[in-house]
Amino acid sequence: MSEPSASPTVLIVETAAGEECPVEFLGESSDLVYFMSMAHSERYGAAHPLAKATRILKFQRRIDLAPLLTFADANTESSEEERALETMWQDAAPLAASARAVAEAIETSDDLRDLAADFPALPERLRELAAMADWAAERDARIRLTYAL
Fold first, then answer.
1. pTM assigned to the model
2. Which long-range contacts (CB under 8 A, 24 or more apart) does 72-79 make?
3. Are 90 and 142 contacting, i.e. CB atoms less than 8 angstroms apart?
4. pLDDT digits (tens, 9 = 90+) for 63-90
5. pLDDT for the residue numbered 110
6. N or C: which end of the chain has fewer CB within 10 A?
7. Domains in the chain: boundaries
């Protein structure tokens, strides 16, 4: 009997467009969740390479990461967590711009590429996320990012 495989960490992208987004991730989205988590922990002094990359993105490249930091656990255990989840909806265009800028920065900077080396699909997933957000923005729809472990 084989051990059940662990399900991967996934980023869940929802829109308020009233129709399903035709754009999807072409690979596992766990790299995005890890990046977003490390970007969030950067303010607390995290030493992870992705947290270091975040410092460069924020302070040297001046990229607004706030849209990528607006996310929450999809699994809620209380009505308070449910209400908090509803506050995660955001405008799609700034998310698209942020995701695209981070992807481009990683692809064009040796330092950032080195820091993200353990997450080789990250730029591609960021571009796919940007395409999803562009799709939502074209429909004046808000977007929400959640994750499941």
1. 0.92
2. 72/145, 72/146, 72/147, 73/146, 73/147, 73/148, 73/149, 74/12, 74/146, 74/147, 74/148, 75/148, 75/149
3. yes
4. 999 999 999 999 999 999 999 999 999 9
5. 97
6. N
7. 28-74+81-148
